[in-house]
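hiii so um. not sure if this is the right channel but i have a protein structure encoded as tokens and i wanna go backwards to a sequence. like what aa goes where. can anyone help
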């Protein structure tokens, strides 16, 4: 009985220790977006480290219209934030932000119609147009064939990639099961063995 309880406790400890990162050494890493393009009805974002195909959210057509339509007046900087929510299946979500000088006379009403959200910072004199998207990490082996040279950005856009740590699902389930089984057994074992131990300690020799 004592050995069985010890084994269960060991299983519990092993289950608690299983936790690892999909990006060794860091959960966040800087990135540079080098291109946006559309091919065969699919929308792609190309980075120096990872590339993505959009699955939902803002269309690249909205972002293109934002620039081509002349609504990016007074553009100061751009930034892309990407969070890989499921590293195993390559699922991700992110946002593209364009920061404009509010004194440049941006058409706020039109920008609101294109972007998912805008934020106005009166102290900095900035308007931030934010476009959200869902995506999937992909390897584009034939990038030079499906992307036009004109799709490549003149200046890469700074970005940040955050990868959620991956947990061992099998060991997490084992931990839950072992907890349900072990706790009652430990309690019962303690109740049964405690009187025996006390009798051994106080019995005459």
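sure thing!! here u go:
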């Amino acid at each position: 009985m004592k050995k069985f309880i010890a084994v269960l406790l060991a299983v519990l400890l092993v289950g608690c220790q299983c936790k690892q990162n999909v990006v060794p050494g860091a959960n966040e890493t800087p990135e540079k977006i080098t291109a946006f393009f559309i091919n065969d009805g699919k929308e792609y974002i190309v980075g120096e480290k990872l590339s993505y195909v959009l699955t939902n959210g803002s269309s690249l057509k909205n972002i293109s219209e934002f620039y081509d339509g002349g609504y990016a007046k007074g553009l100061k900087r751009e930034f892309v934030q990407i969070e890989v929510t499921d590293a195993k299946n390559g699922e991700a979500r992110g946002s593209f932000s364009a920061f404009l000088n509010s004194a440049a006379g941006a058409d706020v009403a039109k920008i609101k119609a294109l972007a998912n959200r805008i934020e106005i910072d009166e102290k900095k004199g900035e308007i931030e147009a934010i476009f959200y998207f869902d995506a999937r990490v992909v390897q584009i082996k034939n990038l030079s064939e499906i992307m036009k040279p004109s799709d490549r950005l003149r200046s890469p856009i700074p970005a940040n990639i955050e990868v959620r740590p991956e947990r061992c699902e099998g060991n997490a389930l084992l931990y839950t099961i072992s907890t349900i089984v072990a706790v009652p057994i430990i309690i019962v074992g303690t109740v049964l063995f405690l009187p025996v131990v006390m009798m051994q300690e106080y019995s005459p020799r």
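oh and Residues 4-25, 170-179, 185-194 have pLDDT under 50 and may be disordered.
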